[in-house]
Amino acid sequence: MINNTDIDQFMSKIKKLEKGEQLDLSSDEDLSIAIMNLISIEEHLFFSGNKTGDNKYFDLINEIREMRKGLLKMIIKDYEGEVWCISKHLLAASMRLMEVGTKAQTKGNQAKANELFKKSYDLYNLFWGLNLGMVKNSDLKSSPSKALVQDIDDKEAPISYSKNEFLGKVSSVIGKILDCCRE
Questions:
Q1: At a CB cut-off of 8 Å and minimum separation 6, what does 181 contact?
Q2: Angle, vertex CA 43, rays to CA 41 and CA 45, nearest 5
Q3: Cα(75)–Cα(24) distance, integer angstroms
Q4: What's phi and psi for 165, nearest 5 deg?
Q5: Tell me, what's the pLDDT at 131?
Q6: Closest listed residue to residue 98, CA positions, set 124, 75, 126
Q7: Could you list the mean pLDDT of each consecutive 10-residue stretch along the chain, which spans 183 residues?
């Protein structure tokens, strides 16, 4: 189980990597959003090809896919098992939930939008938790609800989560580490 000392040590390691310019989380966060959009483009090309019957859309899918794979390699350097594929799907699901949330917001259903935005954010942070080494397969196999940070002070988290929620715990930790506004 991870405790506050583990988090402090991890955050210190991240800061050292950033200072040494070995890790640029701000650029990587921007890159992850670009990758989300490339995944979305692949999906739209698929549906456009099927809806129109025009194979030119299918021909473009591979070019976009290759670009997405190359960019994803810039973030996911080391992985085991299905972490690569899980990461791609976490980004895709996060993007889709964000879009559905904005549609709910446009329709005036703010409560539903907020719920979807929270889920999107949790999945996005799980992506980072996996790829920054905060979430390990052994954590997931043992007991997901107890695998991460049970001693975090919720007041320090950017969004308040129940300590019993696995994704909420990941978001609490990753939210402390990532700050997309840092330059």
A1: 26
A2: 70
A3: 10
A4: -90, 120
A5: 86
A6: 124
A7: 53 53 68 95 97 96 96 85 89 96 97 96 90 68 41 35 54 53 43
Q: What is this structure's pTM?
A: 0.67
Report residue 179 as tokens: 């700050």
Q: Which two tokens stand for residue 161?
A: 């989560």
Which residue pairs, CB below 8 angstroms and at least 24 apart, start in 132-136? 132/10, 132/14, 132/174, 132/177, 133/10, 134/2, 134/10, 134/170, 134/173, 134/174, 135/170
Buried/exposed 21-32: b ≥16 CB within 10 Å, e otherwise: eebebeebbeeb
Cα separation of 157 and 147, whole Å? 18
Is the separation of the CB atoms in 161 and 154 below 8 Å? yes
Distance CA 95, CA 154 (A): 25
Domain range annotation of the chain: 4-8+24-75+82-177
- Which tokens belong to 19? 């200072």
Task: List C-alpha distances in Å: 147 to 10, 61, 129.
Answer: 16, 38, 12
